[in-house]
Amino acid sequence: MASMSESRKRWEVARFCLLGIGLVLVAVPFLWILLTAFKRQVDAASVPPKLFSPFTSQNIRALNQNGFIHSLKASVILTTTTTVSTLVFGVPVGYAFARGKFKGRRFLGAFLLFSRMVPPVIFIIPLFLFFHDLNLVGSYKGLTLAYMTGLLPFAAWMSASYFSDVPIELEEAARVDGCSRLQSFLKIALPLAMPGVVSVALLIGIAAWSEYFIPLILAGPTTTPATVGIVSFIGVDSINWGAMAAGALSLIIPVFIATLLAQRGLLRGLTAGAVKG
User: Fold this and answer.
1) What CA–CA distance (Å, rounded) separates 269 from 217?
2) Topology (CATH) of 62-270
3) What DSSP designation does 234 have?
């Protein structure tokens, strides 16, 4: 028994050591960005790298001077429109998959999951040609629709897992009392699944805020989000590392906060379908 207890203690120590090493490896890049964002430009570009530097806020001021603030506004607009639009269409679809008993349900569910797994580079060229014919390239409407091509299946799949957890007996009782299917959805199922829907909204917002590849191809001069606009700090013969770090910090902080709020929903999404089919 003593040997087993000592072995367990050694295993716990090893686990904590591995966890500590992993946290350090993850935290170092973020710490470096944080330090660089408040370094003087000469110190941020020094070789070899200089860890500490006198505090300065000139990199924060440079964000407005270089037009990066406009890119942040574009990111806010795109994130808001994408999140709202995806929820409006994705949540009812998820409810239909959770409650509907129609032919092809399993096939459509598998198709939604497959479409989520397809990398954007597969459909970006035909999407660009299609949007070009419709004069949607470089517009917020076109970018929102492009974002939704990848996020709508995700929203439907996640929403279906949350609606499946709502007892169907409550909706059946409401139907007996005279509620229609739409009323039972709006008054019974949706309020009970609202915590999950909020988590889905946060996850969609994180994905839209962090998107880079789609706006790189489809965005215009006035609709370029901050993920793409941050490259404006790269000049012909120099790179403003301090301003880039400040811009990256402005992108990281909202995602960090939203991730803390949505972490339970993220875990729920990762395990969705593991028990129920």
Assistant:
1) 29
2) MetI-like fold (1.10.3720)
3) B
